[in-house]
Design brief:
The protein is built from 21 helices and eleven strands. It is an alpha+beta fold and 464 residues long.
Length: 464
Amino acid sequence: MKRFSKVLTVAVAASMAFSVAACGGQEEEGEQGVAASPASVQPAKAGEASTAAKTPVKVVWWHAMSGELGKAVDTLVADFNSMRKDVQVEAVYQGTYDESLNKLKASMDSKSGPAMIQVYEIGSRFMIDSKAVAPIQTFIDAEKFDTSSWEPNILSYYTLDGKLNSMPFNTSNPILYYNKDMFKAAGLDPEKAPSTYEEVAAAAEKLTKDGKSGASFAIYGWFMEQFFANQGAEYVNNGNGRTAPATESLAAADAGVNTLAWWKELIDKKTATNLGRKTEDTRKAFAAGQVAMILDSTASLRGIVNSADGKFAVGTGFLPKPQNAKEGGVIVGGASNYILNNRPEAEQKAAWEFIKYLASPEVQAAWHISTGYFPVTTKAYDLPNVKDNMAKYPQFQTAVNQLHSTKAGTATQGAVMGVFPEARQIMESAIEEALNAKKSPKEAMEGAAKEITAKLEVYNKTVK
């Protein structure tokens, strides 16, 4: 954490230096430092200068980062506050993503909520429908702020109707992790990850021996969403809910049924083990050398590699898909920051200053190195500390390559629907039913589609 703090302090200092230089004219092209917005450089009225100097604008930021991630957030905020006397951010941990969003819902009829909140990606449709958001696009347009170096595949998820509604903050995608030593012992190429369902199945069969399993994939709804996108298939109708509000789940499409059938066949053949819903459990089994392949977030990469240190080498590969699948790719996971429109204008503008700080290459580099999340700006990859980190963890290049090779489209932009948290739980229950032989894959997915569609109908009526 000390190293992270030092890097951030240097980053903010550099951004602040640019901010002062930019006050007299237009921002330099491509600069993503904490440049002052037009509002912040307006001369104070007579008699207000001393008051303004003594009273910084306070921005309350609700977030859902706990543990080491929470410490990284606190360090980030402390460094920003030490350099910005006109704006002071108070970071307040609000529990899990679900808990934080529920607290926001409870605060919407009052002034007790934050100026800015971190919301997981599947809360996007609700946030927009709530009409409680001041779109980030508004601030970008007003300042003519250059976003050309921001990752397009990350921004596309949070862009709806041509507007960027929130600023991506912690971004990840799923990759395949595998035990290179087990691959070598099984006669498989340890430098070549299986890339299709068929290759995964063949590898899992060879890897399953001596009481060890070829694979274990957590029953996580996010994985099924990714499997759809990787086949170029939409998860809900109406352009994945992007051309018009989603009214129907497409869970029972071939992309879903065939994926679940492949997954179930691995379990039935005992070449994969079902360890339940928690990715933490598959992660532990992988670290213990009990399973050869798992799926997990890129945000877990450092922890997974470190847990295997001295025991075996960790390989990484793209998320697998059927060998005859259409072009697709992965959807970004994680969360973004929203500015709320029920706070005073000064707080909204101050929150925008903080968001620009978060998006600066230096801060993104430090955040990436400390947490494992993707930088939201491609400029971060040019910085020496990121290059050094990539050399230390070459497996992360897989994640970057997967993001950059993703074919743009509504499937890979990701679905948006107001009942996404509930839909994810429904999907996980359907996967469980199929893997536990309570329903066939087709029956399970048809049941999930029907249930999600019913919830969409109720939600859409409520919004109207």
